[in-house]
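Researcher: I'm comparing several assemblies side by side, and this is the next one on my list. It has 798 residues spread over two chains. Same procedure as the others: predict the full complex and return the structure.
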Amino acid sequence: MYPNFNFEIINSDPNSNARCGKLTTPHGIVETPNFIFCATKAAIKGLSPTAMKAENTQIILANTYHLMLQPTSEIVKQLGGLHEMMGWDGPMFTDSGGYQIFSLGHGSISSEIKGKRNSTRPNTLLKITEEGAKFRSYIDGSLHLLTPEKAIQIQRNLGADLIVVLDECTPFHVDKTYTANSMHMSHRWALRSVEEFKRENNYAQALYGIIQGGVYEDLRKESADFVNSNEFFAHAIGGCLGSDKNQMHNIVGTTMSMLSQNRPVHLLGIGGVSDIFNGIIHGIDTFDCVHPTRLARHGGALVPHSLKLIEADPSKTEHFNLLNNRFRSDEKAIDPECGCSTCKHFSRGYLHHLFKAKEILGLQALTAHNVHFMNRLMQSIRNAIKDGTLEQERKKWVS
Amino acid sequence: MYPNFNFEIINSDPNSNARCGKLTTPHGIVETPNFIFCATKAAIKGLSPTAMKAENTQIILANTYHLMLQPTSEIVKQLGGLHEMMGWDGPMFTDSGGYQIFSLGHGSISSEIKGKRNSTRPNTLLKITEEGAKFRSYIDGSLHLLTPEKAIQIQRNLGADLIVVLDECTPFHVDKTYTANSMHMSHRWALRSVEEFKRENNYAQALYGIIQGGVYEDLRKESADFVNSNEFFAHAIGGCLGSDKNQMHNIVGTTMSMLSQNRPVHLLGIGGVSDIFNGIIHGIDTFDCVHPTRLARHGGALVPHSLKLIEADPSKTEHFNLLNNRFRSDEKAIDPECGCSTCKHFSRGYLHHLFKAKEILGLQALTAHNVHFMNRLMQSIRNAIKDGTLEQERKKWVS
């Protein structure tokens, strides 16, 4: 079903379930574990594809929900598909659109996954039926119905390498019965997605199934069995991962132990450095999150924990806040060991000035740094898995 | 007085006063005629110095007024001066700060030069005396006094190659007596500037004198004689240039005929394509304006007139408005003959989408295009002067 795709495990960590792999797509290879950057509306905010490549990026994603509304998937297709339109020739991923339909209006998606808010449905979501989800455009209020078939058709137009079935993103504060019913509908949607995928398989795309089941182990097991036994190229862990980091850690661990080992696994919407280490020891292969690029736009420069110790930075975050006045005349690069274009040319003092002066170049420069940081982190993790030194490596990056 | 600077005229147009020259600075050579891009607060909005170089930029400027208030010239000096701080190793220009003090609060500076508004003093300007100009910071309301000496000291801290004396930017709707008195004070300020410049000449900077005199030919003559007879490396035409393009054309022409031919001449704040051609035939060597980069941020892509004819663009501007719906699914590059990074990778349709979606990448991409356009325009003009084909060249670029 996927002759132009492949996933090969190269190394396994002797001390955990962490593993290094090679995910082959028609647009090149993704070395795993790896991080997928969010080009939500078919653009990384502040960085061109050429610059993304220069900072060692292997894979990016775009969001079906945003693009189906604007410019529409037909226009993207007319402009040659996402790769051609964006000028990005590397591997690419799109989500199904469901995620945003079910959570936009609630604030951030990661808050939803992490159960951080008392969730009700967004008022742009009008109705969920067996057929699909009816919602209003966040741009002009127009009515749309997204079905599992349409989600595949739209992603076919968009043309990313890796695509995802439509699922219902179950809200956090629902009971087990709701979660089970929702999961079963998502499974039926997944089967319809596979059918639509096969109806016009162009062998240029590979399909991800999603494991639902919320915080309930028996439901996670049922969902894992479901995806394992269907013709997916890869799996993504979706749905609610609990209300704190420990619960997320447990749910991810439990779910991973139930999934077939020979398919790549993506953890949706997770991008904190310590969360990534936790995912990796359970065998997660890819992550995505707006965090590194969004943080950059607010003056946050990701740095290893070891550097925060050297600089006696009192904050408990995983970054420097360059708006802080202590950087005002600091001539050093953000991180002397970082090889990004920003650390090569700009001092902390200059970056502080750029953010104070609200200069666009500030967010461009920090985006380049954070992208490079994530790629450097993932490379270090891959090396450490190969060398069996993952625990030592973790100490360098997180507290 | 300027052992590390030189200006050499290489070619002269047989049909006009246009000329090609080589302006040598400690940070390299500027081929003239050329355009100076505005990195107002020590940053080009949307483009890194590396990207500016890649689009063939030879020289940029920063504004003393903005930088003296934030981060302050002392901080810039501590961070190694403008070149080091910004990561720009080419020739660089700073203005004196007077321009903004006298016109900020009125709207755009070019409106002021071009006499487009009924000018009163901005209310941040508190008092002009023989000593200097007292004003309030636009950032925090703090009190500042800028004197001719301070303007030189600040520019010494900033460290640009080419620097300018402080002058009073005379408002438009004042009478001849006011203009004459103001000009005489600016001349006295210029002499104090020269004294301060010589007091600590580090041979790393060269000083521009400014010709005032508004719309009055006899005053322009007096001011031209003044700058010609003093130790300036170069001249800048300042003050009001009249209320329409014809009057500007006349004032620039008259003033140029009075200036010594062996010094480079800068025309302050002018950046429209047809205005540039008008300046060049009078012998202007350099221009500066926020127009190309500001236009880019609003979706305007500069294009040659010849391309507007081919595309039957009905607008009378010198650009395409990429927000226009007719570009929605246009697969072509902005200008198939342009070699910029944007025209290499992005279609008009994609750029239209980026602006509709308010993606930062849109303004970054158009800024790169407009910067490249201006550099390509100036290169074409230099070639045409050498070949004696300036009039034919003009027809390609403007209507």
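Model: For your comparison table: The radius of gyration of chain B is 21 Å.
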